[in-house]
Amino acid sequence: MSESPAILLTNDDGIDSTGFRALYDALSEFADVTAVAPADDQSAVGRAMSHEVSVVEHDLGYAIEGTPADCTVAGLESLCPNVDLVVAGCNKGANLGAYVLGRSGTVSAAVEAAFFDVPAIAVSLYVPAGGPGDDTPWHEKATDPADYDNAARATTYLTRHALGAGVFEQAEYLNVNAPMPTAGDPAEMVVTEPSTLYDMTADHDEGRIQLHDRVWERMRTGDIPDPEGTDRRAVVEGHVSVSPLTAPHTTEHHEALDALAETYGAD
Question: What are the Survival protein SurE-like phosphatase/nucleotidase domain coordinates in residue numbering (predicted)?
Answer without folding.
Answer: 7-193
